[in-house]
Amino acid sequence: MRYIMDSLSQIFGAKPRRPSKEEQPPELLEIYQGKKGKLSKADVEAVRHEHHNTCCNKWQRRRWITLILVNVLFVVSYYFDVQLLEGALTASRFVGFHMADLNSALQVALAYKHIVLNLVIGTVTVFVLWLLLGGRTFCSWVCPYHLLAEWTEYLHLWLVKKKLIKNHTFNRKVRGVFYVIFALLALISGYTVFETISPTGILSRALIYGPGVALIWVGALLLFEVFYSRRAWCRYVCPIGVTYGVVGVLSPLRVKYNAEACHHEGDCRKVCMVPHVLDLTIRGAAFDVNQDVGADCTRCGMCVDVCPTSSLTYEIKGLSKLL
Amino acid sequence: MSDKTTKKPKAKRPLSPKRKEQSRREFLRSSVLTIGVIGVSLLGIIPVVQGTSIRLRPPGAIKTPFDEQEFFASCIKCGQCVQVCPVNAIKLADLEDGFGIGVPYIDARAQACDFSCDGLQCVLACPTGALTHHLDYPADTRMGFARLARPKACLAVQGKGFKGQARGADYKGLLRYDEVDRWNPILVADHPYDLELCDLCVRQCPIEIRITQCAEKAKQAEASGDSGKVARVAEQHGNECPPKHAIALEPFELPNGETRMKPVIKEGCVGCGVCEMICPVESAAIVIDLDKTADTLGG
């Protein structure tokens, strides 16, 4: 229950709640206590160094391959007329079976004010799919804009490191505000207003049906992210992320944090697109020895890759008990 | 409990002036971001209000000639209609169409819908009913209405014939010619004509072609003397055979008393645009209008 409430409030922009000492179990306090004075900077550095020399960004590689494969499947399906995955990311048919992006379907329902049976079928299918796969998993494992933004993010980080630019943060609550505004706009105007500027839809259609003027908008967003604010669209604007985040609240696929071996050096928070979900890795901030990362997490696995002590791992809730 | 209440005020220390300034700036930035993004998204209303985005739409689009709002709202912008069209007549609108971005349209002069899929595949593919499922046959639709816009340019009106490729050798448009290949559309450029009097708009009209086919079938059934066959064909007449003619060449008199022929658009025209596409004069003498009589639901 605490997981659900905390996840929801984080998705809509609240700061992660810090536990009071009374809420933390004695084992956890013991772990924190045990680390006092023991973790010398040099030790942490050594472990980190060793990890980064042997590690391979396993999950990032798998994710990029998956993301590219899904989008290529759309393109190939149309180009060679093999009818495997017809349509675009907003709505499609997988070997004839309807699929509808949850946010697009929601926008259409609000604007059109009718319930269409095919859309219901497609929406339920996709809902169940992402319920099982983790919700915002869509963002990092499927959304084509995420991949472009991830690549340009390296440029942003390099510019920041060279002190050529500064990163500007926004209040995360604006994403909730955007979500409500776009829903209201669709309802009141009767147009799917968000679709006009959604880089996910624009990119997906551009890949499948050929490029258009709309790509200029996507380019502008990327420039904004490189020179002004890191990952701004995904962090502060995109309602698709909110929709899938809410679905992910109930998902069994999560990233699990174990406080025992953690060095609290914060490498995970540096690579994370939504670092607030990893606030629990700060010393003294976890609620339990083992705690699941909130549903705003995109399950991208960057933290799993980067963690030198394997304190962050993927888990499927309930499955470990079964096995 | 009392322990907690005493602790709480301590946790809410007032922010340092520096932190206060930072959060004030962040709030301002966030406000500007909100106004900016919403502002940009609302720019999409301009092409819609101006009506620049009103175009020929695929069969069954739920709209009236001057109001496409419902069509824009119900379309999920996925392009599945684009993918099933055998002649690639359907395209998706770009950003300059504002809220209509990703919504399908047809540029009839470049490639019209010739119904060579027979079963209205785009309608069947549409996941949201933006192309309504309330129609079964091409003759049920009403995408627009043809009009002889430039009668003086029309070859038939001039009394001229036509020889050669209708739209030149480089034209990429496709049409299905039943006598060439019943199932696959071919390049118009690969099908040259030799006509004493140009009647391309009538000759290639999908509705007229279907009417002729139906009439021939009925004649054959009659000739076979099989009453069951006659009944079956008559049943077909009830649905898949277009009930009304769409276009015909009709005689008219010039001021000097000479009789010429000109294409006359009939009630059964569905506005598919094949006449506009095939018209060999540049720019087409016959065009598709989206005027008051053009209601895609056929009402």
List keywords for this structure.
heterodimer; A: 323 residues; mainly alpha; 17 helices; globular; B: 299 residues; alpha+beta; two-stranded antiparallel ribbon; 10 helices; disordered N terminus
Order of helices and strands of chain B: HHHHHEEHEEEEEHHHEEHE
**Number of beta strands of chain A:** 6
Oligomer state equals heterodimer
Largest interface: A-B, 57 and 43 residues
The share of residues in extended strands of chain B comes to 5-15%
Average pLDDT taken over every residue of chain A: 92
Which regions of chain B are unreliable across 5 or more consecutive residues at pLDDT < 50?
1-9
Helix/strand layout:
The complex is a heterodimer of chains A (323) and B (299).
Chain A: H1 2-11, H2 26-35, H3 41-54, H4 58-79, E1 85-88, E2 91-94, E3 97-100, H5 102-112, H6 117-133, H7 137-141, H8 144-161, H9 173-189, H10 193-197, H11 199-209, H12 215-227, H13 232-237, H14 239-248, E4 253-258, H15 267-271, E5 290-292, H16 302-306, E6 312-316, H17 319-322
Chain B: H1 2-11, H2 17-42, H3 45-50, H4 69-74, H5 80-84, E1 90-92, E2 104-106, H6 121-125, E3 145-148, E4 162-164, E5 174-175, E6 186-187, E7 193-195, H7 200-203, H8 206-224, H9 227-238, E8 247-253, E9 259-265, H10 274-278, E10 286-289
Helix pairs in contact in B: 8-9
Quick overview:
The complex is a heterodimer of chains A (323) and B (299). By secondary structure, chain A is mostly helical.
